[in-house]
Amino acid sequence: MKIAVIGSAGSLGSRIVAEALRRGHDVTALTRTDLDAADADAVTTAVRGHDVGIGATRPAPGQEHHAATTTRSLLQGHAAAGVRFVMIGGAGALRTPDTGELVADDRRWVPQQIAALARSAVDQLDECRMATGTDWTYVAPSAVMEPGQRTGHYRTGVDKLLVDEGGNSYVSMEDMAVAVVDELADPSFRGQRFTVATATN
């Protein structure tokens, strides 16, 4: 499979590249110096001829309001190229398992200092849902996603934040990468959002 990873220099993007290469896929790694993700025409040119493109971009602090515009450009660029698109989003767009409130608005999960980043995930998902002509999938991590162990064992959900028996919501970046590449190879969530948590047993 020929895969374009936009945002390949990031913590998760680099792990997705490594996971895809590990499985023998042909990967084009694109950083912000290679491609302006907010330029839909440039995105079309960059991803044309690939089987799928992955958006692993993340807004810089203070630039969270640009996330929706960038996501829209990525969607439009992939649609014009006729290439499937997978957006790596955030947990903020999920619902809490107890109250059903947006995670982005629940300070138990999202401290005020990252509230704008969490809210940008909601905007990204809205852009995906409004898009026409794009074969998209939106992937949300757990509340905590950090470098860790590649266990290869994970759980998936659709709308609610996944928590373990202790009330923790966690996925290692390595297992997130495994789940993303699994979805590329065997799609189960086309045209919808799914979320991932490292399995605890």
Automatic annotation (TrEMBL):
Taken from the record, one Pfam family name reads NAD_binding_10
Put simply, this protein is called NAD(P)H-binding protein
Gene3D superfamilies listed in its UniProt record: NAD(P)-binding Rossmann-like Domain (3.40.50.720)
Query: Which residue intervals define the domain NAD(P)-binding in the entry?
Result: 32-187
The secretion signal range is: none
What's the domain of life for this entry? Bacteria
Q: What are the transmembrane regions?
A: none
